[in-house]
């Protein structure tokens, strides 16, 4: 963060903890997601999500009026609810990107997180994450002129 004053957030690799088939699947999914997707996003200059369980945020980027005010806003319709309340970390990163801040990935940083062990918990998590991801990507695409570019 010392090298780039426009770096608003950074994240590292996350390793799911727990036992059972669902956790094994998530260990594979997280490994592929970080080693391929996050690394690729980092290389092209636009990491789309800095996960809530392991992120570093620049305080003045969070206090940017257009970030803090919009992040604190209440959902007024179903699309807002999906975007704002179902994936708060992704929504925060969308706001940072729209304000011209960068979000980066550091593969040398590692953290552990507890992953859903049962199918119902896993399903409920993904039922939040997938629509939120789609809503935030659409928002970024609609505002592509203001999003950080390489």
From TrEMBL:
SUPFAM superfamilies: Nucleotide-diphospho-sugar transferases (SSF53448). The keyword Zinc-finger does not apply. Its EC number is 2.4.1.16. It is a multi-pass membrane protein. Keywords: Glycosyltransferase, Membrane, Transferase, Transmembrane, Transmembrane helix. GO terms for cellular component: cell periphery; membrane. Pfam families: Chitin_synth_2. It is found in: Membrane. One of its GO terms (molecular function) is chitin synthase activity. GO terms for biological process: chitin biosynthetic process. PANTHER family: CHITIN SYNTHASE. This is chitin synthase.
